[in-house]
């Protein structure tokens, strides 16, 4: 399902007994339908696994749960996941997308003949076109799909077959077919349809013998699936295959030919294998296209321990046609006739039939009447059949006999009863504003007199669903057990179709064995076994789901359907707020004004009187819906008439959930919005006892214009859509993101002089043409006898020539009355929602930990009750988010010990040390939360990584920048962390590090070793190293320099901040008096580095800086004495603010914002350098004391938009971006590619790369390509703005550039399609940078 921002989602969940498929509600009274309390978490997660919404618990009714959610207006576009979690039931998830899409006159789909293609392949496809309003297509409609294939006509059904060849030398990952639909009197509409192109080297085949093994000398059925790659990211299809026997000399013997897939790259074949000797093996040769010579894939050999197998006559059984299961047991000549066998049938983990028999012949038939099955299968289901033999251990009964599994397979039993549903509309055509009456009828309700039937209804615009064909969905075998919806979709209304039965047989056949789930004896050993598997292991994922169902198999989920309104119940927990999805806190570029093109004959274009809307003044016609509402009915607005402007474009017109069917009251009503389109009415019915599958029915209702709906017919004098009027928005008028309203009015006369008119009002968003930039300065001002603090501050700034006029503002201009008050506001910005992998999650949680430590100290020293209350609120918010982040971090513990980015094996030493340090800091702020057993276990693993020679065994894996540091830095970091955690037996490691200090002046390395020496009570060595670091401090700025790299391979200012913070902590811990001047200068430098969002450089530097400031604030004091803060601008005294010692308790800051803004108004278009000076003047002290030392922190910052920010002087990467026209351009539109190229110019590997690419305003992105390219590992993650104006790509790392191999160069093409011809198609700047080197950006 695809939604726009501001759309409302309704999510309906059916609770179904996993065994009987019957609706259930009350856990204690299984079928007593009614209201019941449902304990669960409803969450919506973004693509980075960041939680953006949560609702705890809910009330169910009639076996259903309903949630509502409204998409926030500023929500980023992308793929999102609905997650329902409960300790009572297996978890369930459903994906949906958020993105903008335009209203369409036509719905176009393309059915490709294959799921993927290879180079040289012939593409066969069918283009289908239908009008959005349901009316008949015009005969002059034409379709273009390639430059050489233009003006194609459709048949009477709106369809046409097309074919073309893929070039043999293509290296593209995607085939993106752009289809343009137009008539001579209409503006062309285009759509993009993508399918994967698979390179031959990546193609894979997997084989599944019917009952698990190949058995010699009897016919064996083998299922297969062909895949685009080993991970199975897509399905591939070959045109024919051969089964061969190949010996060691590559001599081949043909066994079977002309094998073809029959269902989405899957199929089966039957042959009689034999025992092979001399190194011979069975090979499958797949011919992927007509130009292919065929590729060979190794099959498994015969299992010589097996002498028999079984097969089923029908893998899909319809109880209305056949009342028994027919089995055949086949045995070869080695089989022991007379041996005892057992046949067992299981529905999930429950045995519903078993019987022993004696093998009497080499071909033995066995019948199982459905009436003999112990469980009620009237609603059908997937049944597992197993055949076992016995190893006799004694002469006793079966208790002393060991069961030996021979084979297993799955069958599917169809429901024996279904609901016969019917939907009728009161008429065939409607006009905007009309009332619609829908009659829901159950034709066989008289046969269900002892049953209760419920139904749900949702009429919605088909665009919400119709675009679903662009969503790339793969029904993998891990999901098959839960994919009842998929079975419904494939086999609905085809219960008696032999072809659909054959396809289902294939899907069942490729599932593999499930015996581990159902063997009680092996259940415990299975859990032990998968504990040692990697979390990404396919087998582990599958078994974990099955184990979860075994442990709580009573209820499963069904029919999670689209839905919602954001609830406001969790104000304290701040779940009433919806946070923008910004997983890596990267700077998202702001949009440019689009070219607004309004099409019609001499239109009268108006902007509404109040064209700039406040947030609450949006055109939202779904307000007031209660949280998790089960009933919503769209009604036309008050005072609506047929002459009213068309402004109501509501997507969903009604939602009802689990209404009880009443034969005497079958009608449901709602009113049409203002859209000329087709709505899809979907009704899903289920009953208390009967099967609720195969009971969904859809009808379409057509909305046409009023004159046609009333049966009037006139010839209007309206010219073709060849004339357009454009209205350009001046960027100076839109310096911030604004909502505007555009109104279009048209009128025309017929031959009788009758005037017809129409108006359309739409809301849109105008984004400023620029990128937010800032110039800021922070530091200390005060009085100091030692001159470590100056009595004056200077803030110098200069606006660039590319500054956007009208966007300059003062963000802050304050001197804080308490020395660290500005840090308090910065700390508040650090409290965010956790997300992503271990390091990304830590980039949020660790600053929260340090923020809490800071807040706990700040709470004690609060000046007023108001400030104390604010601090306590911040602490509560931080603790709630930290609890979520802590639980998320725990999930990344490796099964073999330690932590890794995604919980895989092996763990990573430096990342584990980082985590240990974080968890121990957590214990200080959230006592009782952190698991001590986990800490002990992980610390023991890390200690065990010592190599006994003064160093550590180090993992070679290095995702992102952690792990790329030199060995000496990593060893020093590990020793510093372990010693800081209280571990003392590190003499060998410290001795090795101290020896290395004689050969380096690297300040970061020396600071780590000094800190480790102090932790291990080696104070003299620690102080000597700290004295050496003093020589690297710049006494003007306070920064500690002379560092090569850090544990996170930081660069630039982040590296300097990490080094300075480590040095400051050492000076504070070791001798505050000895290092007093260095301490003051270092603190000044750190405070001056506070940025927007509270950060000080990278995550690592922010954490270290906060740790140092917390140490420092223990001895800090406020204002002493009286005087003036004089405000000078460009050398002239403009004003002053008085201060006194009483200021510490009466005010939090001295604010110069108004004074500065007044001056900026005079120089707004000036690009000269300017200077603000604040001086302490007329200073006096109490008791006639000449001077008392004090220092205060300050922050000055101005913000503005820059149309093209400058590129850094020394970036470590090269970034190129070109717009290239595709060779497959259409006749009336252009298909283009944005060619992205990023090169590592350094000798070493670099960490995470981020690229934010803007889209030209007249062009449109193909959303679907991003998912496919991600699966192809062309990038690691992506984000798309909800307005589709820009996209962000992430790569976890990039190796040094190799000219010969091309390694170290990122190359990528992103498809763009021109939406319309524009005189000026604006192109905003794009940017690329390293995540840990954010100050060195490259702008294009």
* Biggest sheet: strand arrangement: 32-42-41-34-39-38
Query: First CA to last CA: what distance?
Result: 35 Å
User: How would a textbook summarize the main sheet?
Assistant: 6 strands, mixed
Strand segment tally = 62
Low-pLDDT runs of 5+ residues are 26-33, 393-400, 463-496, 514-523, 549-618, 691-695, 705-726
Domain Alpha-macroglobulin-like TED: 821-1112
Organism: Stylonychia lemnae
Pfam families: TED_complement
Protein name: A-macroglobulin complement component
Task: Tell me about this structure.
This protein is an alpha+beta fold and 1340 residues long. Helix content is 19%, strand content 33%. It has 22 helices and 62 strands. Helix 5 packs across helix 6 (538-551), helix 9 packs antiparallel against helix 10 and helix 9 packs parallel to helix 11 (909-925). The two termini are 35 Å apart. InterPro entries: A2M/Complement_sys (IPR050473), Alpha-macroglob_thiol-ester_cl (IPR047565), Alpha-macroglobulin_TED (IPR011626), Terpenoid_cyclase/PrenylTrfase (IPR008930). This is A-macroglobulin complement component. Pfam families: TED_complement. Keywords: Signal, Thioester bond. It comes from Stylonychia lemnae (Ciliate).
């Amino acid at each position: 399902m695809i939604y726009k921002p501001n759309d409302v989602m309704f999510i309906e969940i059916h609770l179904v007994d996993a065994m009987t498929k019957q609706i259930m509600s009350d856990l204690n009274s299984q079928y007593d339908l009614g209201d019941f309390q449902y304990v669960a978490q409803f969450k919506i997660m973004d693509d980075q696994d960041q939680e953006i919404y949560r609702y705890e618990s809910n009330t169910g009714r009639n076996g259903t749960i309903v949630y509502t959610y409204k998409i926030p207006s500023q929500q980023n576009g992308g793929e999102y996941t609905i997650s329902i979690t409960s300790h009572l039931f297996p978890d369930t998830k459903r994906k949906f997308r958020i993105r903008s899409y335009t209203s369409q006159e036509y719905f176009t789909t393309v059915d490709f003949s294959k799921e993927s293609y290879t180079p040289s392949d012939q593409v066969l496809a069918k283009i289908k076109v239908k009008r959005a309003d349901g009316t008949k297509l015009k005969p002059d409609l034409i379709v273009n799909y390639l430059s050489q294939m233009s003006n194609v006509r459709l048949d009477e059904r709106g369809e046409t077959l097309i074919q073309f060849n893929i070039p043999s030398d293509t290296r593209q990952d995607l085939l993106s077919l752009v289809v343009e639909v137009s008539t001579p009197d209409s503006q062309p509409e285009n759509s993009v349809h993508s399918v994967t192109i698979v390179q031959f080297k990546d193609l894979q085949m997997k084989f599944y013998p019917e009952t698990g093994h190949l058995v010699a000398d009897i016919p064996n059925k083998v299922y297969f699936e062909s895949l685009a790659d080993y991970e199975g990211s897509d399905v591939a299809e070959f045109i024919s295959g051969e089964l061969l026997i190949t010996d060691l000399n590559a001599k081949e013997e043909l066994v079977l030919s002309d094998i073809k897939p029959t269902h989405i790259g899957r199929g089966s074949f039957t042959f009689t294998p034999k025992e092979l000797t001399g190194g011979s093996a069975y090979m499958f040769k797949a011919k992927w296209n007509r130009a292919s010579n065929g590729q060979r894939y190794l099959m498994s050999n015969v299992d010589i321990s097996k002498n028999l197998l079984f097969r089923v006559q029908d893998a899909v059984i319809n109880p209305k046609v056949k009342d028994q299961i027919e089995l055949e047991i086949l045995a070869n000549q080695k089989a022991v006739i007379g041996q005892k066998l057992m046949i067992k049938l299981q529905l999930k983990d429950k045995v519903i039939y078993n019987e022993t028999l004696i093998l009497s012949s080499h071909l033995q038939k066995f019948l199982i009447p459905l009436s003999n099955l112990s469980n009620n299968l009237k609603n059908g289901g997937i049944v597992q059949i197993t055949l076992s033999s016995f190893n006799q251990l004694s002469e006793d009964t079966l208790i002393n006999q060991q069961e030996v599994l021979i084979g297993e397979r799955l069958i599917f039993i169809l429901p024996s009863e279904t609901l016969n549903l019917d939907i009728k509309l009161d008429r065939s055509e409607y006009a905007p504003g009309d009332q619609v009456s829908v009659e829901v009828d159950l034709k066989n309700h008289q046969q269900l007199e002892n049953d209760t039937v419920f139904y749900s209804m949702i009429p919605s615009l088909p665009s919400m669903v119709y675009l679903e064909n662009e969503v790339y969905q793969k029904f993998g075998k891990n999901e098959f057990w839960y994919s009842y919806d998929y079975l419904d979709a494939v086999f609905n209304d085809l219960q008696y179709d032999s072809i659909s039965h054959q396809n289902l047989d294939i899907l069942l056949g490729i599932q593999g064995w499930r015996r581990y789930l159902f063997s009680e004896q092996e259940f415990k050993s299975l859990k032990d076994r998968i504990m040692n598997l990697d979390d990404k292991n396919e087998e582990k994922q599958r078994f974990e789901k099955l184990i979860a169902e075994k442990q709580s198999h009573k209820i499963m989920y069904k029919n999670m359907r689209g839905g919602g309104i954001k609830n406001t119940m969790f104000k304290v927990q701040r779940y009433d707020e919806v946070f923008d999805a910004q997983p890596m806190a990267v700077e998202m570029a702001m949009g440019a004004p689009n070219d607004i093109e309004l099409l019609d004959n001499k239109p009268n274009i108006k902007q509404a009187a109040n064209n700039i809307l406040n947030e609450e003044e949006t055109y939202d016609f779904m307000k007031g819906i209660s949280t998790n509402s089960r009933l919503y009915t769209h009604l036309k607005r008050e005072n609506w008439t047929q002459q009213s402007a068309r402004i109501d474009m509501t997507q969903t017109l009604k939602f009802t959930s689990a209404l009880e069917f009443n034969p005497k009251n079958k009608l449901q009503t709602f009113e049409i919005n203002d859209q000329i389109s087709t709505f899809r009415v979907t009704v899903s019915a289920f009953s208390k006892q009967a099967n609720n599958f195969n009971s969904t029915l859809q009808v379409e209702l057509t909305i046409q214009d009023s004159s046609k709906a009333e049966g009037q017919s006139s010839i209007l004098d309206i010219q073709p859509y060849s004339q357009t009027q454009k209205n350009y928005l001046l960027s100076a008028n839109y310096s911030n993101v604004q909502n505007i309203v555009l109104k279009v009015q048209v009128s025309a006369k017929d031959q009788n002089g009758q005037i017809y008119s129409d108006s359309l009002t739409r809301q849109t968003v105008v984004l400023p043409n620029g990128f937010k930039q800032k110039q800021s300065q922070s530091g200390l001002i005060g009085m100091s006898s030692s001159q470590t603090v100056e009595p004056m501050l200077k803030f110098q700034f200069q606006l660039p020539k590319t500054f956007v006029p009208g966007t300059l503002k003062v963000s802050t201009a304050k001197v804080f009355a308490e020395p660290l008050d500005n840090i308090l506001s910065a700390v508040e910005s650090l409290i965010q929602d956790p997300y992503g992998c271990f390091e990304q999650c830590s980039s949020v949680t660790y600053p929260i930990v340090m923020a809490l430590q800071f807040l706990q100290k700040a709470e004690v020293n609060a000046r007023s009750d108001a400030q104390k209350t604010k601090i306590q609120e911040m602490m509560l918010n931080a603790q709630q988010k930290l609890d979520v982040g802590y639980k998320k971090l725990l999930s990344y513990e490796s099964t073999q010990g330690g932590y890794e980015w995604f919980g895989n094996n092996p763990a990573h030493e430096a990342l584990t040390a980082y985590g240990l340090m974080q968890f121990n800091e957590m214990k200080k702020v959230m006592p009782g939360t952190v698991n001590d057993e986990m800490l002990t276990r992980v610390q023991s693993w890390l200690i065990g990584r010592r190599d006994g020679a003064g160093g550590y065994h180090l993992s070679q894996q290095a995702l992102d920048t952690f792990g790329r540091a030199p060995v000496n830095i990593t060893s020093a970091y590990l020793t510093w962390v372990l010693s800081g955690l209280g571990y003392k037996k590190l003499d060998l490691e410290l001795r090795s590090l101290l020896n290395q200090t004689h050969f380096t002046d690297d300040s970061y390395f020396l600071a780590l070793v000094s800190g480790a020496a102090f932790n291990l009570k080696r104070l003299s060595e620690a102080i000597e190293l700290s004295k050496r670091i003093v020589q690297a401090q710049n006494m003007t700025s306070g920064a500690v320099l002379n560092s090569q790299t850090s544990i996170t391979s930081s660069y630039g200012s982040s590296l300097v901040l990490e080094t300075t913070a480590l040095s400051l902590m050492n000076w504070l811990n070791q001798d505050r008096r000895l290092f007093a001047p260095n301490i003051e200068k270092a603190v000044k430098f750190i405070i001056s580095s506070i940025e927007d969002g509270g950060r000080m450089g990278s995550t690592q530097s922010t954490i270290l800086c906060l740790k140092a400031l917390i140490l420092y604030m223990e001895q800090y004091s406020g204002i002493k004495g009286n005087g003036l803060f004089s405000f000078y601008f460009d050398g002239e005294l403009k004003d002053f603010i008085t201060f006194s010692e009483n200021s510490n308790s009466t005010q939090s800051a001295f604010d110069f914002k108004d004074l500065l803004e007044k001056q900026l108004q005079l120089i707004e278009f000036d690009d000269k350098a300017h200077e603000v000076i604040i001086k302490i003047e007329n200073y006096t002290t109490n008791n006639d004391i000449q001077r008392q030392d004090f220092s205060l922190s300050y922050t000055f910052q101005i913000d503005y938009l820059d149309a093209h920010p400058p590129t850094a002087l020394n970036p470590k990467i090269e970034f190129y971006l070109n717009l290239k026209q595709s060779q497959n351009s259409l006749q009336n539109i252009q298909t283009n590619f944005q060619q992205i190229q990023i090169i590592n110019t350094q000798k070493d590997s670099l960490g995470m790369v981020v690229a934010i690419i803007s889209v030209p305003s007249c062009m449109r992105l193909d959303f679907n390509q991003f998912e496919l390219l991600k699966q192809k590992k062309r990038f690691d993650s992506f984000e798309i703005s909800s307005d589709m104006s820009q996209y962000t790509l992430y790569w976890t790392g990039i190796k040094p550039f190799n000219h010969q191999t091309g390694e170290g160069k990122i190359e990528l093409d992103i498809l763009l399609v021109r939406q319309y011809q524009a005189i000026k198609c604006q192109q905003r700047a794009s940017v690329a940078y390293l995540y840990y080197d954010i100050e060195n950006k490259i702008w294009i």
